[in-house]
Amino acid sequence: MLTLMRLFATVAGLWGLATGMAWAEPDAQGCKDHPLFTRMAQHYIYDCKHSQFEMRRFPVGPMGTDNKARLQEVEGEFWSIEMGLNDGASNFQNAAKQAGGGVEGSYPEWCSLHLDDSFKLGNACTNYGTTLKITKGGKEFWTFVNATGVADGYVLYIVGRQAMKQDISVNEWVDKLNKDGFLTLYVNFDTGRATIKSDSAKTLDDAAATLKAAAGLKIEVAGHTDNVGTAPSNEKLSADRAQAVMAALVQRGIAASRLSAKGYGQSVPVADNRSEDGRAKNRRVELVKK
Q1: Which helix (H) or strand (E) holds 231?
Q2: N or C: which end of the chain has fewer CB within 10 A?
């Protein structure tokens, strides 16, 4: 079987051997590529599905030591595209990065983590798979790519949902900070890390502009997480993310002497952690007036 390890690599030497073959399979009737991903010429679609609303759970790393995947629930417009390989390769991770997205999980082995039956993968495993997230046109597109046993191919599962937006003006932010004493920022990080994703640049630009307009205030940058994982690890993660946001604000011209950073982990939720929407709201950074 060709694995996604091969799909993530460039094997141009092999393509030259295969492109002269005339046995390429046609796509299944009514199936086409998703606009986010362009396939190599020697791929063909043997099955597909599209619906306006479904829920899928995307693997975003290990849950613990029992090989179970930590899962991110995503609801929205759904596509599945199942492809066979005549020959060729696709670098989905690079495609996501070039589109301003990132890798939420990577599983370069056979069945390294166990899933639930959300994707109906047969053995319910991450088989040389990867989870990607791309924000484009006001939507988050979550994608899981997994090797299959059919035609030495792979399958893409894609869910598009509305991205969380910071949709108030800087003047409104200044008023809110003075009135309420804090602002909530939804900054996107790499999963389980404190690396800020590029799609959060505008949020941080607006936050810096707000602090420049409220120049007399000193601010605590407070990091918060959902309840997935352990309390100690979440406290450290939230502290690291608070430090990362503080550093980003300093880079944007805010004096470091005005800022401090602290992580609260999962201890101060603002929504119910039993739903994905609630967990998304709890994963936040706040600017708190001292």
Answers
A1: helix 231-251
A2: C
